[in-house]
């Protein structure tokens, strides 16, 4: 009997190791496939577009329907639209997330239905938001095809993602932090401002980065609201062409414009990488400064 038990234990151990090996190999294979696809896409964009990029490409005006010249006005339009979009969406999203987690969290029926509505809105195709923005901002409110119309439409589009991300970030803060703050005599508002939000900052910034990526990559909604005009905007009520719309136009509507489309795509990818790296660096610096401050206080 002891021998039989030993044999059975050995077989179970071998089966366990085989299953573990299969799972590990599957995970590495999946990760390798994803990495290979990413390298393939980025490599193709870089090979086709990087030769077109120079200082003039980044600063000059669009010429010959985009076949020559640069993307200076397009970069400015993209930057303006992104800044206005985030300036509208972030405060509204943060206020809503705080209310859902700290204000009406006891009303489960309300919170559940609000979350369900947000999840539905997050899955709505962007072209539907574009039609909505065109009907409301462009036509009804008389803003016309403008950067402001596009920004308001994009803000509506990324609100569900931002709210849900901010809400999860706040909920993920350990309850012990709140208990410790209460033990020190801090009120709910002080706890939120001085404890909860700083602790949730990395996750909050991750949500902002995700939303920034979606806003920068958006095309369909902006065609209906911000327009196609490729000149330098003088105000938020001017029409402006973003980088994603420019890529679409060069690739689909302009004969001989594919090389410029790839060059613009290179700039867009680099811009996204710079944003991600900058946010990570800022978070690390903020964490280091917080630790040094608390260490000095102790």
From TrEMBL:
Read off the CDD domains from this record.
TM_PBP2
Gene from which this protein is expressed: pstA
What name does UniProt use for this protein? Phosphate transport system permease protein PstA
Spans traversing the lipid bilayer: 21-42, 74-98, 118-137, 143-163, 204-230, 261-283
- Give the location in the cell: Cell membrane
| A single GO BP | phosphate ion transmembrane transport
- Mode of membrane association: Multi-pass membrane protein
Similarity comment: Belongs to the binding-protein-dependent transport system permease family. CysTW subfamily.
Kindly indicate whether the keyword Ribosomal protein belongs to this entry.
Answer: no
Q: Which Gene3D superfamilies match?
A: MetI-like (1.10.3720.10)
Task: Extract the GO molecular function terms from the UniProt entry.
Answer: phosphate transmembrane transporter activity
